[in-house]
Amino acid sequence: xxxxxxxxxxxxxxxxSSLKNGKFNxxxxxxxxxxxxxxxxxxxxINKSNLTHEYISSSKIFTxxxxxxxxxxxxxxxxxxxxxxxxxxxxxxxxxILNSGAPVVIEKCSAWLxxxxxxxxxxxxxxxxxxxxxxxxxxxxxxPLTYDYYQKVIKGKTPPSxxxxxx
Length: 167
Hints:
GO terms for molecular function: FMN binding; oxidoreductase activity, acting on the CH-NH group of donors, NAD or NADP as acceptor. Pfam families: Flavin_Reduct. InterPro entries: Flavin_Rdtase-like_dom, Flavoredoxin, Split_barrel_FMN-bd. This protein is mainly β. It has helices at residues 51-59, 73-80, 147-152, and strands spanning 14-20, 23-29, 32-37, 40-47, 61-67, 95-97, 103-105, 109-122, 126-138.
């Protein structure tokens, strides 16, 4: 079996964020997708070992900041290769706080969505959080960052906790 076939599935790159006890955390995710149109339901797949998982499980809120092609490796690395247990990922980026109290990154992002968790589904390593869209905004008309662009143009790597990691 050639698991590289999975690289043929289209993915975007997003910052999925949440809050707990007044603190924010966010992470890079590429497994985010719309499930239904009415009501608008989205799923974010989050590794159980990540701090963002703990925050979403606690608050029942997650936000999705859609990265644009303006994002570079350093910016992506802040959310993708650092732990919120060790650093404040929001300390050096432009973000805003929504009515729910959750943050969205507006720097180097083309849009954002805010979801209220209505269900979750367990897998061995990840939880699929099903969220109902409660708010959203288009920031600008910049091209969204795809996972393919990240790998081929930015020359980015995939961390072991990512849903698309292949040894």
